[in-house]
Design goal:
- It is a single chain.
- With 321 residues, the protein is an alpha/beta fold.
- It is 26% helix and 23% strand.
- The chain has six helices and 15 strands.
- The protein has a six-stranded mixed β-sheet with strand order 10-11-12-13-14-15, with helices on one face. It has a three-stranded parallel β-sheet with strand order 1-2-3, covered by helices on one side. The chain has a three-stranded mixed β-sheet with strand order 4-6-5.
- The protein is rod-shaped and about 145 Å long.
- The N and C termini lie far apart (142 Å).
């Protein structure tokens, strides 16, 4: 060092001695087969030819920082070895991602099949006209499906065979409790079926099931005696629609809603007074006119009021017997 040396080349020196020299020397030590504690290593490779501009013996390089990598300095790693290292890193990352994905898939399948996330407790709210046990069985929830696979649409489709049920909303209380809120339709009238049994009817004309003779609702009648099927879903649907739209002002006074084959609807009141509505067009205006006549006109039993034109009501006496 005093003579001006800028480095020491240690070839085939015992590693412990090379370490001692490297620790004491203030200039870099370059090892050739002298262990891993030298400041640098000589790598002989035909892939790394000398390039113009590379440091020469005349330059004084800075003392290399030790990296602890056995047998080489950071800047001298061959390109082929670096490429292999990158490929190995990519393969390792791919393997780890694959293992993590497989683990998550396994855990997900386990959760789906364990009873912890299956429907164990079901409460039905709003079921008044059907037996809850029957509804539970028909909904498929008695089979304890997974909470993830339950939807209001799927339950509603299964419950379509119940005429009273028209909608379903569910509330999930994790991990295993389900609240099913059922929306039932309401009856707007009654009608006699093919076997002369009184049935409830909703606004869509559906047969909701048996009704008592004392039911305080208008009676629907379709004036086509040859009809043997339930008429109020199709040809006689206008009568059911009118019954569903009756205003509170006089709905309690309507005893009978009839419809003929041409779709002409007639209201027969309890007084008894008859109102001819005709078709269901301008229905609101016709109801307003009828309410005004009932409130401000003295009608005699048997009077017939033609309300087919709401602005020009015509009142006539009872038809000749």
């Amino acid at each position: 060092e005093k003579a001006g040396a800028f480095g020491i080349l240690l070839e085939l020196v015992v590693p412990s001695v090379a370490k001692e020299i490297s620790d004491r020397a203030r200039i870099p030590t370059i090892g050739i087969g002298s262990g891993t504690d030298c400041d640098g290593q000589v790598h002989v490779s035909r892939r790394r030819p000398w390039r113009p501009g590379a440091p020469t013996r005349g330059s004084r390089p800075l003392r290399a920082r030790r990296t602890g990598s056995p047998g080489r300095a950071n800047s001298s790693e061959p390109a082929g070895r670096a490429g292999r290292r990158r490929a190995g890193t990519i393969a390792m990352v791919t393997l780890v991602v694959t293992l993590v994905g497989a683990s998550l898939s396994f855990v997900g399948q386990w959760l789906l099949h364990t009873s912890y996330l299956r429907v164990q407790h079901v409460s039905f709210v709003g079921v008044r006209h059907e037996r809850p046990a029957t509804v539970l069985e028909a909904s498929g929830l008695a089979a304890h499906p997974t909470m993830f696979g339950v939807s209001a649409l799927s339950i509603e489709r299964r419950l379509q065979r119940f005429p009273w049920i028209v909608g379903v909303r569910i509330e999930k209380h994790w991990p295993s409790t389900l609240v099913v809120r059922v929306h039932e339709t309401r009856p707007v009238a009654v009608a006699f079926g093919a076997h002369h049994v009184l049935e409830y009817v909703d606004g869509a004309g559906r047969d909701l099931g048996p009704a008592p003779l004392s039911a305080n609702l208008p009676t629907l009648e379709f004036l086509r005696p040859t009809t043997t099927t339930w008429p109020f879903l199709h040809a006689g649907n206008a009568a059911a629609y009118v019954a569903s739209q009756l205003p509170p002002a006089f709905s309690a006074q309507v005893a009978l809603v009839t419809e003929d084959a041409n779709g002409q609807v007639v209201l027969k009141m309890t007084t008894p007074v008859t109102f001819i509505l005709g078709t269901v067009s301008q229905l609101h205006a016709k109801f307003v006119a009828i309410a005004s006549v009932i409130a401000h006109t003295t009608l005699r039993p048997g009077d017939v009021v033609d309300a087919t034109v709401p602005d020009e009501l015509a009142v006539s006496g009872p038809p000749p017997s």
